[in-house]
Amino acid sequence: MKIILGVTGSVACYKGVLISREFFKRGLKQKVILTNSALKFIRPLIFKALSNAEVYTQKDFFNSNLHIEISRWGDLLLVAPASANFISKLANGIADNLLLSVAISFNKRIILAPAMHDEMWKNKFLRENVEKLMKGGIEIIGPVYGDLSGGDFGEGRMLEVNEIIDYIFKNTKKVLLVYGRTEEPIDDVRVITNRSSGKIGYFIHKALESNGIYHDIIVCGSIENIPEKKFIRVYRTDELLNILKERIKNYDVLIIPAAISDFVSDRMIGKIHRKNGKLNLNLKPNIDVLKEISSLKENKIYIGFALEEEREIEENAKIKISEKNLDFIVANTLDSISSEKMTGFIMDKNFKKVFEFKNLDKFEVAKKIVSLI
Protein backbone atom coordinates (compact mmCIF):
# COMPACT_ATOMS: atom_id res chain seq x y z
CA MET A 1 0.00 0.00 0.00
CA LYS A 2 1.26 3.49 -0.92
CA ILE A 3 0.11 6.22 1.44
CA ILE A 4 -0.04 10.00 1.05
CA LEU A 5 0.09 11.64 4.46
CA GLY A 6 -1.06 15.26 4.64
CA VAL A 7 -0.27 17.36 7.70
CA THR A 8 -1.99 20.70 8.29
CA GLY A 9 -1.44 23.41 10.91
CA SER A 10 -2.19 22.19 14.43
CA VAL A 11 -0.46 21.49 17.72
CA ALA A 12 -1.31 17.85 16.90
CA CYS A 13 1.30 17.87 14.11
CA TYR A 14 3.56 15.76 16.30
CA LYS A 15 1.07 12.91 15.90
CA GLY A 16 1.57 13.14 12.16
CA VAL A 17 5.24 12.33 12.73
CA LEU A 18 4.36 9.30 14.85
CA ILE A 19 1.84 8.09 12.27
CA SER A 20 4.50 8.38 9.56
CA ARG A 21 6.87 6.37 11.75
CA GLU A 22 4.25 3.62 12.12
CA PHE A 23 3.86 3.45 8.35
CA PHE A 24 7.63 3.13 8.04
CA LYS A 25 7.74 0.29 10.59
CA ARG A 26 5.09 -1.56 8.57
CA GLY A 27 7.22 -1.25 5.45
CA LEU A 28 4.73 1.00 3.65
CA LYS A 29 5.72 3.49 0.98
CA GLN A 30 4.69 7.03 1.79
CA LYS A 31 4.84 10.61 0.60
CA VAL A 32 4.29 13.42 3.11
CA ILE A 33 2.81 16.82 2.26
CA LEU A 34 3.16 19.67 4.77
CA THR A 35 1.11 22.84 4.45
CA ASN A 36 2.57 26.24 5.25
CA SER A 37 0.65 26.23 8.52
CA ALA A 38 2.10 22.84 9.43
CA LEU A 39 5.59 24.27 8.92
CA LYS A 40 4.91 26.64 11.83
CA PHE A 41 4.93 23.57 14.10
CA ILE A 42 7.16 21.01 12.41
CA ARG A 43 9.90 20.60 9.81
CA PRO A 44 10.38 18.18 6.88
CA LEU A 45 13.66 16.84 8.27
CA ILE A 46 12.00 14.90 11.09
CA PHE A 47 9.87 12.91 8.62
CA LYS A 48 12.91 12.16 6.50
CA ALA A 49 15.00 11.14 9.50
CA LEU A 50 12.43 8.96 11.28
CA SER A 51 10.52 7.52 8.33
CA ASN A 52 12.73 7.94 5.28
CA ALA A 53 9.73 9.63 3.67
CA GLU A 54 9.60 11.88 0.61
CA VAL A 55 8.40 15.25 1.91
CA TYR A 56 6.74 18.01 -0.11
CA THR A 57 5.84 21.56 0.86
CA GLN A 58 4.14 24.51 -0.74
CA LYS A 59 7.43 25.32 -2.51
CA ASP A 60 6.76 22.30 -4.70
CA PHE A 61 3.23 23.38 -5.64
CA PHE A 62 4.06 24.71 -9.11
CA ASN A 63 6.46 21.89 -9.98
CA SER A 64 4.82 20.84 -13.25
CA ASN A 65 1.94 18.39 -12.59
CA LEU A 66 3.24 17.19 -9.23
CA HIS A 67 -0.22 17.17 -7.62
CA ILE A 68 -1.48 14.81 -10.34
CA GLU A 69 1.59 12.59 -10.11
CA ILE A 70 1.21 12.23 -6.35
CA SER A 71 -2.55 11.62 -6.49
CA ARG A 72 -2.11 8.90 -9.12
CA TRP A 73 0.71 7.31 -7.12
CA GLY A 74 -1.13 6.80 -3.83
CA ASP A 75 -3.58 4.15 -2.67
CA LEU A 76 -4.75 6.07 0.41
CA LEU A 77 -4.77 9.73 1.43
CA LEU A 78 -4.70 10.42 5.16
CA VAL A 79 -4.78 14.01 6.45
CA ALA A 80 -3.79 14.05 10.12
CA PRO A 81 -4.24 16.51 11.62
CA ALA A 82 -6.92 18.04 9.41
CA SER A 83 -7.65 21.67 10.34
CA ALA A 84 -10.98 23.49 10.03
CA ASN A 85 -9.44 25.53 7.23
CA PHE A 86 -8.45 22.44 5.24
CA ILE A 87 -11.82 20.72 5.76
CA SER A 88 -13.80 23.77 4.65
CA LYS A 89 -11.69 24.42 1.58
CA LEU A 90 -11.82 20.79 0.48
CA ALA A 91 -15.61 20.69 0.92
CA ASN A 92 -15.95 23.70 -1.35
CA GLY A 93 -13.52 22.58 -4.06
CA ILE A 94 -10.80 25.09 -3.25
CA ALA A 95 -7.32 23.95 -4.36
CA ASP A 96 -4.98 26.77 -3.42
CA ASN A 97 -2.12 24.64 -2.08
CA LEU A 98 -0.41 21.36 -2.91
CA LEU A 99 -2.25 19.21 -0.37
CA LEU A 100 -5.69 20.47 -1.40
CA SER A 101 -4.83 20.00 -5.09
CA VAL A 102 -3.77 16.42 -4.40
CA ALA A 103 -6.93 15.77 -2.36
CA ILE A 104 -9.24 17.13 -5.03
CA SER A 105 -7.45 15.04 -7.68
CA PHE A 106 -7.51 11.88 -5.55
CA ASN A 107 -10.17 9.29 -6.46
CA LYS A 108 -9.45 6.55 -3.90
CA ARG A 109 -9.85 6.26 -0.14
CA ILE A 110 -9.52 9.54 1.81
CA ILE A 111 -9.44 9.73 5.61
CA LEU A 112 -9.41 12.96 7.62
CA ALA A 113 -8.50 13.13 11.32
CA PRO A 114 -9.66 16.59 12.53
CA ALA A 115 -7.94 18.52 15.30
CA MET A 116 -9.18 21.91 16.58
CA HIS A 117 -10.83 23.64 19.50
CA ASP A 118 -14.30 22.63 20.68
CA GLU A 119 -15.93 25.84 19.46
CA MET A 120 -14.50 25.44 15.96
CA TRP A 121 -15.59 21.81 15.67
CA LYS A 122 -19.14 22.70 16.69
CA ASN A 123 -19.43 25.67 14.31
CA LYS A 124 -22.51 25.13 12.14
CA PHE A 125 -20.76 26.03 8.89
CA LEU A 126 -17.94 23.60 9.58
CA ARG A 127 -20.48 20.92 10.45
CA GLU A 128 -22.16 21.47 7.09
CA ASN A 129 -18.80 21.06 5.36
CA VAL A 130 -18.08 17.88 7.31
CA GLU A 131 -21.46 16.46 6.30
CA LYS A 132 -20.81 17.37 2.69
CA LEU A 133 -17.48 15.53 2.69
CA MET A 134 -18.92 12.46 4.38
CA LYS A 135 -21.77 12.29 1.85
CA GLY A 136 -19.08 12.39 -0.84
CA GLY A 137 -17.46 9.25 0.60
CA ILE A 138 -14.66 10.82 2.61
CA GLU A 139 -14.08 9.14 5.99
CA ILE A 140 -13.79 11.46 8.99
CA ILE A 141 -12.53 9.91 12.22
CA GLY A 142 -12.80 11.86 15.44
CA PRO A 143 -12.28 14.25 17.00
CA VAL A 144 -12.92 13.16 20.60
CA TYR A 145 -13.31 14.83 23.97
CA GLY A 146 -10.01 15.46 25.69
CA ASP A 147 -7.33 17.96 26.61
CA LEU A 148 -6.80 20.70 24.05
CA SER A 149 -4.10 23.32 23.62
CA GLY A 150 -4.05 26.23 26.02
CA GLY A 151 -5.25 24.06 28.90
CA ASP A 152 -8.76 23.73 27.47
CA PHE A 153 -10.91 20.60 27.45
CA GLY A 154 -13.57 19.70 24.92
CA GLU A 155 -14.49 17.92 21.72
CA GLY A 156 -11.73 18.61 19.26
CA ARG A 157 -8.84 16.38 20.29
CA MET A 158 -7.38 14.35 17.43
CA LEU A 159 -7.51 10.57 17.80
CA GLU A 160 -4.40 8.90 19.18
CA VAL A 161 -1.90 7.40 16.78
CA ASN A 162 -2.77 3.79 17.61
CA GLU A 163 -6.49 4.52 17.08
CA ILE A 164 -5.83 5.96 13.63
CA ILE A 165 -3.55 3.07 12.65
CA ASP A 166 -6.13 0.55 13.91
CA TYR A 167 -8.86 2.30 11.95
CA ILE A 168 -6.89 2.26 8.70
CA PHE A 169 -6.00 -1.40 9.01
CA LYS A 170 -9.06 -2.57 10.92
CA ASN A 171 -9.84 -5.35 8.43
CA THR A 172 -6.31 -6.73 8.26
CA LYS A 173 -4.82 -9.59 10.22
CA LYS A 174 -1.41 -10.03 11.83
CA VAL A 175 0.62 -12.47 9.78
CA LEU A 176 3.67 -14.57 10.65
CA LEU A 177 5.62 -15.55 7.54
CA VAL A 178 8.24 -18.31 7.70
CA TYR A 179 10.40 -19.02 4.65
CA GLY A 180 13.81 -20.21 3.52
CA ARG A 181 15.38 -23.62 4.19
CA THR A 182 16.51 -25.30 7.37
CA GLU A 183 20.08 -26.50 7.85
CA GLU A 184 20.51 -29.59 10.02
CA PRO A 185 24.09 -30.15 11.23
CA ILE A 186 26.08 -33.28 10.39
CA ASP A 187 29.14 -32.01 12.23
CA ASP A 188 30.32 -28.53 13.21
CA VAL A 189 30.94 -27.65 9.54
CA ARG A 190 28.51 -29.53 7.31
CA VAL A 191 24.72 -29.50 7.15
CA ILE A 192 21.80 -31.29 5.51
CA THR A 193 19.77 -28.75 3.54
CA ASN A 194 18.05 -28.34 0.15
CA ARG A 195 18.01 -26.10 -2.92
CA SER A 196 15.11 -23.86 -1.87
CA SER A 197 15.88 -20.22 -2.73
CA GLY A 198 13.23 -18.57 -0.55
CA LYS A 199 11.89 -16.64 -3.56
CA ILE A 200 8.22 -17.45 -3.01
CA GLY A 201 8.52 -16.42 0.65
CA TYR A 202 10.18 -13.17 -0.31
CA PHE A 203 7.44 -12.44 -2.87
CA ILE A 204 4.75 -13.17 -0.26
CA HIS A 205 6.48 -10.60 1.97
CA LYS A 206 6.34 -8.04 -0.86
CA ALA A 207 2.65 -8.81 -1.52
CA LEU A 208 1.81 -8.43 2.18
CA GLU A 209 3.78 -5.18 2.27
CA SER A 210 2.05 -3.73 -0.79
CA ASN A 211 -1.33 -4.45 0.80
CA GLY A 212 -0.36 -2.80 4.09
CA ILE A 213 -0.76 -6.05 6.03
CA TYR A 214 1.19 -6.23 9.26
CA HIS A 215 3.59 -9.17 9.22
CA ASP A 216 6.65 -10.47 10.99
CA ILE A 217 9.17 -12.74 9.32
CA ILE A 218 11.27 -15.72 10.30
CA VAL A 219 13.95 -16.59 7.74
CA CYS A 220 15.38 -20.10 7.80
CA GLY A 221 18.95 -20.78 6.74
CA SER A 222 21.53 -18.91 4.69
CA ILE A 223 19.35 -17.79 1.79
CA GLU A 224 19.97 -14.62 -0.22
CA ASN A 225 16.35 -13.51 -0.66
CA ILE A 226 15.97 -11.71 2.66
CA PRO A 227 13.50 -8.88 3.46
CA GLU A 228 14.46 -5.24 3.86
CA LYS A 229 12.69 -5.11 7.24
CA LYS A 230 13.81 -6.65 10.53
CA PHE A 231 13.46 -10.41 10.77
CA ILE A 232 14.43 -13.36 12.94
CA ARG A 233 16.85 -15.88 11.46
CA VAL A 234 16.98 -19.53 12.50
CA TYR A 235 18.88 -22.49 11.08
CA ARG A 236 17.68 -25.69 12.71
CA THR A 237 14.14 -27.08 12.78
CA ASP A 238 14.08 -27.33 16.56
CA GLU A 239 14.94 -23.61 16.80
CA LEU A 240 12.04 -22.79 14.49
CA LEU A 241 9.60 -24.98 16.41
CA ASN A 242 10.51 -23.39 19.75
CA ILE A 243 9.95 -19.87 18.38
CA LEU A 244 6.62 -20.83 16.80
CA LYS A 245 5.36 -22.41 20.01
CA GLU A 246 6.26 -19.24 21.89
CA ARG A 247 4.94 -16.66 19.40
CA ILE A 248 2.14 -18.14 17.30
CA LYS A 249 -0.44 -16.95 19.84
CA ASN A 250 0.30 -13.36 18.76
CA TYR A 251 -0.81 -13.85 15.15
CA ASP A 252 -3.97 -14.45 13.14
CA VAL A 253 -2.32 -16.08 10.13
CA LEU A 254 0.67 -18.38 9.63
CA ILE A 255 2.13 -18.72 6.14
CA ILE A 256 4.99 -21.20 6.01
CA PRO A 257 6.63 -21.84 2.62
CA ALA A 258 9.86 -22.79 4.44
CA ALA A 259 11.55 -25.92 3.05
CA ILE A 260 12.10 -27.87 6.26
CA SER A 261 14.45 -30.83 6.08
CA ASP A 262 12.69 -34.20 6.14
CA PHE A 263 15.67 -35.89 7.80
CA VAL A 264 18.32 -35.11 10.40
CA SER A 265 21.46 -37.02 11.29
CA ASP A 266 23.22 -37.78 14.54
CA ARG A 267 25.48 -34.78 15.03
CA MET A 268 29.19 -35.39 15.30
CA ILE A 269 31.45 -33.08 17.28
CA GLY A 270 34.15 -31.14 15.44
CA LYS A 271 34.95 -31.68 11.76
CA ILE A 272 34.78 -35.07 10.08
CA HIS A 273 37.99 -35.62 8.11
CA ARG A 274 38.23 -37.40 4.78
CA LYS A 275 41.23 -39.38 6.00
CA ASN A 276 38.88 -41.29 8.29
CA GLY A 277 37.53 -43.04 5.22
CA LYS A 278 33.97 -44.05 4.36
CA LEU A 279 31.24 -42.35 6.40
CA ASN A 280 27.75 -43.65 7.02
CA LEU A 281 25.14 -41.16 8.13
CA ASN A 282 22.35 -42.33 10.40
CA LEU A 283 19.35 -40.38 9.09
CA LYS A 284 16.11 -40.21 11.02
CA PRO A 285 12.82 -38.39 10.33
CA ASN A 286 12.82 -34.73 11.33
CA ILE A 287 10.21 -32.94 13.45
CA ASP A 288 6.99 -32.15 11.54
CA VAL A 289 6.65 -28.49 12.54
CA LEU A 290 3.10 -27.88 11.32
CA LYS A 291 1.84 -31.09 12.90
CA GLU A 292 3.51 -30.11 16.19
CA ILE A 293 1.75 -26.71 16.29
CA SER A 294 -1.59 -27.86 14.88
CA SER A 295 -3.04 -27.95 18.42
CA LEU A 296 -2.21 -24.22 18.80
CA LYS A 297 -4.25 -23.23 15.74
CA GLU A 298 -7.54 -22.16 17.40
CA ASN A 299 -9.14 -19.67 14.96
CA LYS A 300 -5.94 -18.92 13.07
CA ILE A 301 -5.43 -19.44 9.36
CA TYR A 302 -2.63 -21.89 8.52
CA ILE A 303 -1.26 -21.91 4.98
CA GLY A 304 1.24 -24.67 4.27
CA PHE A 305 3.24 -25.72 1.22
CA ALA A 306 4.06 -29.03 -0.45
CA LEU A 307 6.76 -29.67 -3.04
CA GLU A 308 5.81 -32.94 -4.73
CA GLU A 309 6.31 -35.10 -7.79
CA GLU A 310 3.54 -34.45 -10.28
CA ARG A 311 2.10 -37.99 -10.12
CA GLU A 312 1.61 -37.76 -6.32
CA ILE A 313 0.93 -34.07 -5.83
CA GLU A 314 -2.85 -34.11 -5.35
CA GLU A 315 -2.94 -37.16 -3.08
CA ASN A 316 -0.11 -35.87 -0.87
CA ALA A 317 -1.64 -32.39 -0.69
CA LYS A 318 -4.87 -33.86 0.73
CA ILE A 319 -2.95 -35.94 3.28
CA LYS A 320 -1.00 -32.90 4.48
CA ILE A 321 -4.11 -30.74 4.80
CA SER A 322 -5.67 -33.36 7.09
CA GLU A 323 -2.57 -34.23 9.12
CA LYS A 324 -1.45 -30.66 9.70
CA ASN A 325 -4.87 -29.04 10.17
CA LEU A 326 -4.32 -26.59 7.30
CA ASP A 327 -6.81 -24.14 5.84
CA PHE A 328 -4.94 -24.02 2.52
CA ILE A 329 -2.01 -25.79 0.97
CA VAL A 330 0.07 -24.49 -1.93
CA ALA A 331 1.18 -27.60 -3.80
CA ASN A 332 3.86 -27.21 -6.45
CA THR A 333 5.95 -29.50 -8.62
CA LEU A 334 9.67 -30.22 -8.28
CA ASP A 335 10.63 -27.93 -11.18
CA SER A 336 9.43 -24.96 -9.12
CA ILE A 337 12.41 -25.15 -6.77
CA SER A 338 14.89 -22.26 -7.24
CA SER A 339 12.88 -21.14 -10.30
CA GLU A 340 11.19 -17.81 -10.99
CA LYS A 341 7.98 -19.65 -11.89
CA MET A 342 5.69 -22.22 -10.29
CA THR A 343 3.36 -24.96 -11.42
CA GLY A 344 0.73 -26.42 -9.12
CA PHE A 345 -2.43 -25.42 -7.29
CA ILE A 346 -3.87 -24.00 -4.07
CA MET A 347 -6.26 -26.37 -2.31
CA ASP A 348 -8.56 -25.49 0.62
CA LYS A 349 -9.39 -27.65 3.64
CA ASN A 350 -12.37 -29.13 1.78
CA PHE A 351 -9.97 -30.42 -0.90
CA LYS A 352 -11.26 -27.91 -3.44
CA LYS A 353 -8.70 -26.42 -5.80
CA VAL A 354 -9.27 -22.68 -5.48
CA PHE A 355 -6.49 -21.70 -7.87
CA GLU A 356 -4.43 -23.63 -10.43
CA PHE A 357 -1.31 -22.28 -12.10
CA LYS A 358 1.25 -23.42 -14.68
CA ASN A 359 4.63 -21.73 -15.15
CA LEU A 360 3.26 -18.65 -13.40
CA ASP A 361 5.56 -15.97 -11.97
CA LYS A 362 6.06 -16.56 -8.26
CA PHE A 363 5.03 -12.99 -7.45
CA GLU A 364 1.65 -13.61 -9.09
CA VAL A 365 1.23 -16.77 -7.01
CA ALA A 366 2.25 -14.80 -3.92
CA LYS A 367 -0.45 -12.17 -4.56
CA LYS A 368 -3.07 -14.90 -4.85
CA ILE A 369 -1.91 -16.46 -1.56
CA VAL A 370 -2.19 -13.10 0.21
CA SER A 371 -5.70 -12.61 -1.20
CA LEU A 372 -6.81 -15.72 0.74
CA ILE A 373 -6.44 -13.97 4.08
Topology:
Blueprint: E1 2-7, H1 13-25, E2 29-34, H2 44-51, E3 54-56, H3 66-73, E4 76-82, H4 84-91, H5 98-105, E5 109-114, H6 118-121, H7 124-135, E6 139-140, E7 144-147, E8 153-157, H8 161-168, E9 175-180, E10 184-185, E11 191-192, H9 199-210, E12 215-220, E13 232-234, H10 237-247, E14 253-255, E15 263-265, E16 283-285, H11 289-292, E17 301-308, H12 313-324, E18 328-333, E19 341-348, E20 353-361, H13 362-371
Parallel strand pairs: 1-2, 1-4, 2-3, 4-5, 5-6, 9-12, 9-14, 12-13, 14-17, 17-18
Antiparallel strand pairs: 7-8, 10-11, 15-16, 18-19, 19-20
Helix pairs in contact: 1-2, 1-8, 3-5, 4-7, 9-13
Question: Which features characterize this protein?
Answer:
373 residues; alpha/beta; Rossmann fold; eight-stranded mixed beta sheet; six-stranded parallel beta sheet; 13 helices; 32% helix; elongated
What can you see in these coordinates?
The protein has 373 residues and is of the alpha/beta class. It folds into two domains: 2-167, Rossmann fold, CATH 3.40.50.1950; 175-371, CoaB-like (Rossmann fold, 3-Layer(aba) Sandwich), CATH 3.40.50.10300. 32% of the residues lie in helices and 26% in strands. The chain is built from 13 helices and 20 strands. The chain has an eight-stranded mixed sheet, with helices on both faces. Helix 12 links the parallel strand 17 (301-308) and strand 18 (328-333). Helix 1 runs parallel beside helix 2 (44-51), helix 3 packs across helix 5 (98-105) and helix 4 (84-91) packs across helix 7. It is elongated and about 85 Å long. The protein starts with a strand and ends with a helix. The relative contact order is 0.09.
